[in-house]
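Sample intake sheet
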Amino acid sequence: MNSKDEKRPKAEDIEAEQLPYPAKQSDMKRQPDSDLSNYKAAGKLQGKVALVTGGDSGIGRAVAVAFALEGASVAILYNENTSDAEETRRMIEERGGKCLVIKADVRDSQACRDAIAQTVKKFGGLNVLVNNAAYQMAQKKFADITEEQLHRTFETNIYGYFYMAQAALPHLKEGDCIINTGSIVGLVGNPILVDYCATKGAIAAFTKSLALNLGERGIRVNAVIPGPVWTPNIPGTMPPEEVENFGHEVALKRPGQPEELAPAYVLLASEDGSFMTGSLVHVTGGKLSSD
């Protein structure tokens, strides 16, 4: 066990931090580990081009940095927090990587097509699409989920995945891939995230179905299924009693950190995952779907 492993906060170390939505990672009192300082790169994505939605912070930032360390040119798409997106760019470029920052809303199909076009124009192609942008807002009472919230959740979390995949497909070839970010709550549920859970369940079915659809073309489609991970969405969208002791319910008794998720995306994006498609890769700290 190295020093960073020893310093990763246990659930009891997480305080009831609250931030206004959309929460900035830079404003979090307890900063997530997303700098990939533990990561040992091996050139697994040399010469590849990747686009990561929701790449400004949290899991998306860690994935973008990991891909860059592995040799990929990376575009990140974000919606609101420009300062966080620029920090992701800085982290990539200071490590010698290339990063294109795109401000866009995945709920807009034309914006998705434009983002793909910008990436292809900048880097000459596209090999890996990571659908990671997400919206959630906790509601203790099911009746309090408004039509506006319902539309925003579905349009961001599942429509946006469809739009980005459809825009990317003309540029993907055999050996390329799409990686979706699901969630364990899409398989086990959560009483205060009913609409969000529904979209994450849809992502699992979308992943498996699209993998079957694109198999003959040699384009792989997989999903990473995170458990509780310490990102800006937690203090920005969850009530204080859920933030406090966040991650207590899993076997490891702590939340995951973004950089602990990134290696799963590298596996799925690289030749190491060449026989993986339609897979839901659980990185949950021991939160099992049978619970």
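Comment: The chain is about 40% helix and 10% strand. Residues 42-283 form a domain with the Rossmann fold fold (CATH 3.40.50.720).
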